[in-house]
Amino acid sequence: MHLPRTLRHQAPSLLLLVAGGCSLHGAPAFSIAGAYFPGWMICALIGVGVAVGLRVAFVLAGIDAVLSLRLFTYTSLGVMAALLSWLLCFGP
Known about the structure:
By secondary structure, the chain is mainly α. The protein contains three helices and two strands.
């Protein structure tokens, strides 16, 4: 099967764009007890911890009973905390 002429000339450029995300430094990782954990996993655990902590705080304050979409509320709070921690740790 023959590739069209334009695609044949553009293929190396497309491969360079795809490989542009690769770097020599590697992904951000933390050494915990001798094992390396990726940065996104640490930020996800921070997000889960914040969501659980806010749930406990909302239940104690009586705000939880007022919420209509609890699953989406706590999920979005956890995602916001995870993204904020990623931005603060690894951002520009």
